[in-house]
Fold these 2 entries.
Entry 1:
Amino acid sequence: MRSRLVTRVLGSALFAGAAPLAVHAASAQVLVSQGNGHGVPPCQSCHGASGEGQTAAGFPRLAGLDADYLTRQLADYAADTRANPVMQPIAKSLSADERQAVAAYYSRLPVPAIPPGTPPPDRTGQTLATRGRWSQQVPACEQCHGPGGVGVGTHFPPLAGQPAAYIEAQLEAWQQGTRRNDPLQLMQHLSRKLDARDIAAVAQSFAAQPLPAGGSGR
Ligand code: HEC
Ligand code: HEC
């Protein structure tokens, strides 16, 4: 009698512990491929079937990015500190649990290859990326984003292999103050020292830079 009770209590404790994980995995998969039925379109219609992004449209790659970074970006769109007419309503229609689940899902996907036809790195861009421009107190991008722009931990996202149009759009968003979610306003200050040619050059360089298979540097 007693042992049956113990089994039942234990069983329900185990079930209670296991259930949220199962729900997470299922809901992330459904969100990505079907949306959530109340205002969220399938993520993959823009970010690609494997989270690889879309070069021509400038939709960012999500595959292999750090889960906490992705969760925070979704929270920032919802809080309007990162303005974008497409992503703000989507992020607002996701619950905190859904944001976390979908971020975890994308962080585990393998990093895709650089799309064929991507233009080679630009010389001005490479100099900015690896050495910066000290006459204007612009540090090398790689000092924060890691060697080759592979990303460092939760705070410094990878730039390698992101569509050039996406990198450009972010630098312009910081210049204009429509993206203002960066810790210590590091990117807001830095972007204002770059002109349109610098931005195009540095974006082209990182777009051509492959990311190692392990994803963001940790
Ligand atoms: C209609 C197209 C579209 C759909 C659908 C879409 N996105 Fe996006 N997403 C974008 C665009 C465009 C951007 C870049 C916005 C910007 O410039 O800030 C973006 C940016 C992001 C970013 C920021 C990435 C980074 O590197 O900072 C995340 C995270 C994201 N989307 C997650 C999602 C998730 C999760 C879903 C599904 C629930 C989704 N998106 C659905 C178009 C879309
Ligand atoms: C002093 C540190 C620092 C330096 C140097 C730096 N960055 Fe950043 N960058 C950051 C941080 C922090 C973030 C993340 C902001 C956030 O949390 O939303 C970021 C984000 C970005 C993003 C957005 C990526 C995404 O997935 O949305 C781009 C693009 C970017 N940086 C480009 C550059 C370029 C190009 C350079 C060199 C010209 C550069 N950064 C130099 C700190 C730095």
Entry 2:
Amino acid sequence: MKIIAINGSPRKGWNCDKLLHSWVEGIKSVYQEADIEIVNLYDLTFTGCRSCFACKLKGGRFFGTCPINDGIHDLLADIRHANAVAIAAPIYFGDINAYTKCLLERMIFSVMTYGNPPRNMIENPVAFTMLYTMNAPEDYVVDHNYLSRCDEMETTIGWAYKCNVERVTAYNTYQFTDYSKYESEYFDEADKRHYRDTHFSLDLKAAFDNGANCVRKLLKA
Ligand SMILES: Cc1cc2nc3c(=O)[nH]c(=O)nc-3n(C[C@H](O)[C@H](O)[C@H](O)COP(=O)(O)O)c2cc1C
């Protein structure tokens, strides 16, 4: 069973990375033998889609695949043949951060056609979980439908990879090791710390449970 866990944050060991590793632990708790590849996206050099359309060229050698031979070339092939993929992304300006979006552009666009009706060229379904971390508190996110762009992206991923994308979120994240060193008076550091100390473990548990359930479903299928 091939599992890919991708940290879309530039920060190793921070919120996204922790959530992702908890998801991985959930996988292992059910199926120790899973072949798990952990990827730090910011270690790779790549661009978003270049709109070359080689993936849609009839009879072309790259039809249904991305021809760009850069840092995510092999990762894209691995994702396509994986059983499950988790991507942890920080929310930047109310959306999935740009670097992760670059991966998603390439990952989605290359496997879909402009046929009528459009079709995807994925051989087998890939189970996807998106894990998001953000500074905004949960009530703000809910009241403002703050993750609507993530909803749309998940719908597209689900269509392209033939799955129902699952989601785990961590709100109100702690951003600095020492708030006193940064101009950050807009936030109440004590409140942020309290929230982290009381809630983040629940978010980690949700990620763990999602990973465990993901494998259980795959083993049953
Ligand atoms: C460039 C930038 C833009 C951000 N924009 C938002 C935002 O629009 N909404 C939000 O809730 N948090 C925003 N954040 C905060 C991050 O989403 C949050 O700290 C996240 O947990 C970071 O993940 P990490 O700790 O894994 O790096 C932003 C952070 C950065 C660096």
